[in-house]
Amino acid sequence: MHARVLRYLDEVVRRGSIRQAAVHLHVAPTAINRQILDLEAELGAPLFERIQRRLVLTPLGEMVVAHARQTLREHEALRARIADIRHARRGVVTVAVTAGLAGAWMPSLVHDFRQRHPGIAVRVADLPVESILRAVEEGDADIGLGYDLPDLPALRIVAGSHWQIGAVVAPGHPLAGQVSVQLAECAGYPLLLPAPSLSIRALIDGAFAAAALEVVPGVESTSIELLQRLAAAGSGVALLNPLDVREARAHGGVVYVPLRDAGLPRQTLRLVTRARGVASPAAQLMAEAMAAAMAVLER
Fold first, then answer.
1. Could you give the residue ranges of the DSSP H alpha helices within 87-217?
2. CATH of the domain at 237
3. Do 144 and 135 form a contact (C-beta atoms < 8 A)?
4. Rounded to whole angstroms, how far apart are CA atoms 229 and 245?
């Protein structure tokens, strides 16, 4: 049954007459009467009895009105849920990020986002770069965030920022007091390097090669957190970017000293979504929050 006739029927029962219902609904009495007559014809029986100029429900009418009111309540609840989703008061957003970013940057970002949008559930998956791309392409994640993500037709780049690689050392390390350092200076200490499977390692290896330096890492790891902890403990010099060690620097656990070697490329952090389709309001809000935070961090 159409929502309009349900509202008409409910109001006639509440007001006791078609005329009073028409006044309340701001429609012509004939329009309400026609809708009810059509409904009665469809059901094959009258919904009302006319007793002393007042409409009284028949047993069938009572059944239909009970159904109509339940339907109208469910309809209003549905409209409220849709409004919640449209205005992003409710929803779920899934973000796929590299493990280093999940530990270094996402905690504060997710906390701030949830403070502003407590009705939106946030799911964070730490994945390798290839898995991030696949998760976003296939719809398993709404947003992807990682370093040096390739240009792919299936992905849309929402935001990007560039990060300079530097030496990460303990506060008491000999390099900690310098404004900048060169790779040759870092090579004089045990090196704590990201594993070859990470994109930053290719940039570091290329820089060492350009400087004609042959080095043997003291430690290699896919865990950025492990490298920064070793650096904080004085085990050597980690080569990372400032975003990787943002939390540790804020607490004074490590010192970041930028590298000044000529031609050393920066890491490119990219925020991506699917190129096709419409993102949910929750995903749009998260993408906007992450893009804004990236812009602030790069300043």
1. 99-104, 106-116, 129-137, 183-186, 199-210
2. 3.40.190.10
3. yes
4. 10
Using CA atoms, how far apart are residues 206 and 197, in angstroms rounded to an integer? Answer: 14
pLDDT in tens, 141-199: 999 999 989 999 999 999 999 999 999 999 999 999 999 999 999 999 999 999 998 88
Domain of residue 51 covers 2-87
Number of structural domains found in the chain: 3
pLDDT tens-digit series, residues 23-58 = 988 999 999 999 989 988 998 999 988 877 778 899
pTM: 0.68
Of 87, 115, 131, which marks where a domain is finished?
87
Q: CA–CA separation, 161 vs 87, rounded Å?
A: 29
- CA 186 – CA 108 distance, rounded (Å): 31
| CATH code assigned at 13 | 1.10.10.10
